[in-house]
Design goal:
Blueprint lengths: L30 E7 L2 E7 L5 E7 L4 E5 L3 E7 L2 E9 L4 E10 L5 E8 L4 E8 L2 E6 L2 E6 L4 E6 L7 E6 L5 E5 L3 E6 L9 E5 L12 E2 L5
Antiparallel strand pairs: 1-2, 2-3, 3-4, 5-6, 6-7, 7-8, 9-10, 9-17, 10-11, 11-12, 13-14, 14-15, 15-16
Length: 218
């Protein structure tokens, strides 16, 4: 489940309030993402080149920095919370999927599950145990056990993807600032679960629900 609360500028202006009783720390700037967990909150911030990070905030108000990486969003799985982090730019193009475990008694741990092929641009839950991640170099299904299935390998260049959705039929659509990309199961290769890529128009895909992306506003 993704919970995105702000499209705030990376400078930290117009930031939304934090959950009650939690004080803002250095690095809590930019776009804010939060997820309620048994022991408190997971708080993610993405301020681009200005910083960001992943914090655990206990019910007592105490906070713990879990990662200094910019946070794109969260997906919950039975094995733990998957946090997609990373940043792209002229000199940086990195990303990871972390898994956060909450024991329920304010003991929260985080581990790197997968190193991505580039900076994450958009995510959405894909199954009970996985998240779909659009990076600067393609689209992958990342499972909570660390398994990665590449669905599309391509550079998005100036398409600037900012959202991704999966239909009930398993079709995947990646939205950009001025484009919409569709991945469909090929009729000729259903038995082998093959995929092909083509460009679709927004009018051909009604009632899309936008997911988490760096340029999207919830």
């Amino acid at each position: 489940m993704l919970q995105i609360d702000s499209g705030a500028p990376p400078t930290g202006r117009l930031e939304l309030p934090l959950p009650h009783g939690i004080r803002r720390k250095k690095g809590m700037v930019g776009r804010q993402t939060r997820l309620k967990i048994p022991s408190g909150w997971l708080l993610g911030f993405d301020g681009g080149e200005f910083g960001g990070g992943l914090w655990f905030a206990a019910r007592t108000g105490n906070t713990q920095l879990l990662s200094g990486e910019q946070v794109l969003g969260f997906t919950t799985t039975p094995e733990g919370v998957l946090a997609v982090v990373g940043v792209g730019g002229q000199a940086t193009d990195v990303g990871q999927v972390l898994i956060v475990h909450d024991s329920g008694d304010s003991q929260v741990t985080v581990k790197t599950r997968v190193v991505l092929d580039g900076a994450p641009e958009a995510i959405t839950p894909f199954s009970e145990h996985s998240v779909l991640v659009v990076t600067t170099h393609g689209i992958s299904q990342v499972s909570s056990d660390g398994t990665v299935k590449r669905l599309s390998k391509r550079s998005f260049g100036f398409l600037y993807p900012n959202s991704v959705v999966v239909t009930k039929d398993g079709e995947i659509y990646v939205g950009g600032e001025c484009s919409l990309l569709g991945l469909y199961r090929s009729l000729e290769s259903i038995r082998s679960s093959g995929w092909y890529v083509r460009v679709a128009t927004a009018s051909s895909v009604p009632n899309l629900t936008v997911s988490a992306g760096r340029s999207s506003v919830a």
